[in-house]
Inverse folding.
């Protein structure tokens, strides 16, 4: 898999200079990349994809609300860039290609923030993180809140950059997690076979934590229709009936998303400013 129009709703494209990964925390239990890789690509072992590096040339500006803006590119939807099997020299190449496209915003998300911090200190400690690079950590469980601290530590070491937290699939309460100095929160429930339920109270806590720190929120989806917070009240006998009822009563505003995406009566589609180009 390489550059493609992405199903990741908060990005325009994905770019996979690395393929394959290994589990690191509970959010990996139902890793969709692993399922795809095992079914279609002969396994999930880590592979470098240098022939894909040049794909960054393909990304074009996006027109939104009548204005051209930088495309948003999610890096490594099929891996984790900071996996230990990705050599430092290969990271150099990835970031050189990112630097070569300052008109594109690249989103790097990791569950391995220790290496992000160590590498980031060395790479950007003196000159700062490039403006077109957004760096984020996944925090699917409050026991992993330390990942946010490590991301903040990189800000202290390298200066300001767009830092984001991805609480998806959110698997626990979100209390006690500070989003101070964070610039974006992505949140959502798990999708796919065996998806675990996102408790609406946890999603409310995540939004409250974001509000307390004035952080924009992108809530992606509940994951499955039976996990929708109003599902128990939905009228009808079939999933289609119940879904139609929620939509008709205004309890779901984005019926195309998996399980809906309405939280606290609204859609959450806010993000940090994206440069016009
Ligand atoms: S870190 Fe991401 S890509 Fe790697 S196994 Fe976990 S969920 Fe899958």
């Amino acid at each position: 898999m390489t550059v493609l129009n992405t199903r990741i709703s908060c990005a325009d494209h994905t770019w996979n200079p690395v393929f394959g990964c290994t589990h690191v925390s509970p959010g990996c239990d139902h890793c969709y990349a692993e399922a795809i890789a095992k079914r279609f690509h002969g396994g999930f072992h880590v592979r470098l994809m240098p022939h894909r590096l040049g794909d960054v040339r393909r990304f074009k500006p996006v027109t939104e609300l009548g204005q051209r803006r930088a495309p948003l590119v999610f890096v490594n939807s099929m891996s984790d860039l900071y996996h230990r099997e990705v050599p430092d020299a290969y990271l150099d190449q990835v970031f050189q290609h990112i630097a070569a496209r300052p008109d594109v915003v690249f989103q790097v998300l990791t569950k391995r923030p220790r290496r992000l911090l160590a590498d980031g200190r060395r790479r950007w400690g003196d000159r700062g993180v490039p403006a077109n690079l957004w760096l984020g950590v996944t925090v699917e469980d409050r026991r992993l809140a330390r990942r946010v601290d490590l991301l903040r530590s990189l800000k202290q070491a390298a200066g300001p950059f767009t830092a984001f937290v991805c609480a998806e699939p959110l698997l626990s309460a979100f209390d006690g997690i500070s989003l101070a100095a964070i610039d974006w929160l992505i949140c959502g429930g798990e999708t796919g076979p065996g998806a675990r339920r996102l408790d609406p109270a946890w999603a409310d806590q995540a939004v409250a934590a974001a509000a307390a720190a004035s952080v924009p929120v992108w809530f992606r989806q509940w994951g499955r229709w039976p996990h929708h917070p109003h599902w128990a009240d939905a009228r009808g006998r079939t999933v289609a009936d119940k879904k139609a009822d929620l939509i008709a009563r205004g309890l779901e505003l984005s019926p195309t998303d998996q399980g809906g995406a309405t939280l606290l009566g609204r859609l959450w589609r806010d993000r940090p400013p994206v440069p016009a180009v």
Observations:
- Residues 4-221 form a domain with the pyruvate-formate lyase- activating enzyme fold (CATH 3.80.30).
- DSSP finds six helices and twelve strands in the chain.
